[in-house]
């Protein structure tokens, strides 16, 4: 019964989310006003086949990470999220685990920033949500899986990035990331995923291990970043880090001063990104 109701609930919630509200193209022939299965899968970072099996009752016991991703993609309220966890026979993460819930109020804020590159991460700097403008500027984050979605992991394991740092900027940025991660690990001592991330990073990166063992503590600050875009070239933008203290979320916002060359390049990137999304739909 729980699995059957889980599938029904997912379908109901999927039908009520307009694709344009989720930053997806809404054109073409659609049998329903809501999200297609492949669109929900894209937003949640899971396979279309798994979404289908969940809705049809052929899959049971989704993980906490999958349920949390579905709740975000479906824009569930707090009560609906709790109900979804119950249908999946899971208990919502407690206060000693890094929260990954994006509240409807934060989601509404993101909906209004369609022309601005915005991404939301949790307290451990794991990416939860990125809008299409962010994807156009920084690269499509939907291809990232597991620890790859964590900014600390990407920076210390040498994954490709469009951000260009001077040696001094790199040193300050790395120290800030480790300090932020250490603070998060102190706030959420029971989070096994966070402990596993730190352990893996200590093994994979000598620089991370050096900074971690040095005991740096603090907060990552906003800055100006130079981004090398494959079509638009280099542009330097303000990168502001906004914090939602109640849910311990980080909102990363990239912007340019109006009338500057960087602002013109952002407009070009917006057009290029929109064309790319339409072609893939």
What does this structure look like?
Helix content is 48%, strand content 13%. It has helices at residues 2-15, 37-44, 48-55, 64-73, 78-87, 104-111, 132-138, 151-156, 167-187, 192-204, 206-214, 261-280, and strands at 117-121, 127-130, 163-164, 223-229, 233-244, 249-255. It has a 6-stranded antiparallel β-sheet with strand order 2-1-6-5-4-3. It starts with a helix and ends with a helix.
What is the percent of helical residues? 40-55%
Radius of gyration over alpha carbons?
19 Å
Strand count, sense and barrel status of the largest sheet are: 6 strands, antiparallel
| Count of DSSP strands | 6
Number of helices: 12
Run of helices and strands = HHHHHHEEHHEHHHEEEH
Topology record:
Layout: H1 2-15, H2 37-44, H3 48-55, H4 64-73, H5 78-87, H6 104-111, E1 117-121, E2 127-130, H7 132-138, H8 151-156, E3 163-164, H9 167-187, H10 192-204, H11 206-214, E4 223-229, E5 233-244, E6 249-255, H12 261-280
Antiparallel strand pairs: 1-2, 1-6, 3-4, 4-5, 5-6
Helix pairs in contact: 2-3, 2-4, 4-5, 7-12, 10-11
Please give a handful of descriptors for the protein shown.
disordered C terminus; 48% helix; alpha+beta; 281 residues
Give a brief rundown of this model:
The protein contains twelve helices and six strands. It is of the alpha+beta class and 281 residues long.
């Amino acid at each position: 019964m729980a699995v059957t109701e889980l599938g029904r609930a997912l379908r109901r919630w999927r039908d009520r989310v307009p694709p344009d509200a989720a930053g997806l193209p809404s054109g073409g022939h659609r049998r329903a006003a809501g999200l297609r299965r492949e669109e929900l899968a894209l937003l949640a970072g899971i396979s279309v086949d798994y979404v289908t099996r969940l809705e049809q009752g052929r899959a049971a016991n989704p993980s906490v990470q999958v349920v949390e991703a579905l709740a975000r993609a479906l824009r569930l309220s707090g009560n609906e999220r709790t109900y979804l966890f119950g249908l999946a026979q899971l208990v919502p993460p407690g206060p000693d685990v890094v929260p990954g819930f994006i509240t409807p109020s934060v989601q509404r804020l993101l909906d209004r920033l369609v022309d601005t590159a915005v991404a939301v991460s949790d307290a451990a700097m794991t990416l939860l949500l990125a809008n299409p403008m962010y994807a156009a500027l920084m690269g499509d984050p939907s291809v990232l899986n597991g620890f790859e979605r964590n900014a600390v992991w990407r920076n210390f394991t040498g994954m490709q990035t469009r951000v260009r740092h001077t040696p001094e900027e790199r040193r300050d940025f790395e120290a800030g990331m480790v300090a932020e991660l250490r603070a998060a690990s102190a706030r959420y001592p029971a989070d096994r995923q966070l402990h596993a991330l730190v352990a893996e990073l200590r093994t994979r990166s000598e620089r991370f291990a050096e900074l971690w063992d040095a005991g740096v503590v603090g907060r990552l600050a906003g800055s100006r970043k130079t981004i090398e875009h494959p079509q638009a070239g280099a542009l330097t933008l303000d990168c502001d880090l906004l914090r939602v203290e109640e849910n311990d979320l980080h909102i990363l916002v990239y912007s340019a001063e109006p009338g500057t060359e960087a602002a013109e390049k952002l407009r070009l990137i917006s057009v290029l990104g929109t064309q790319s999304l339409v072609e893939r739909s």
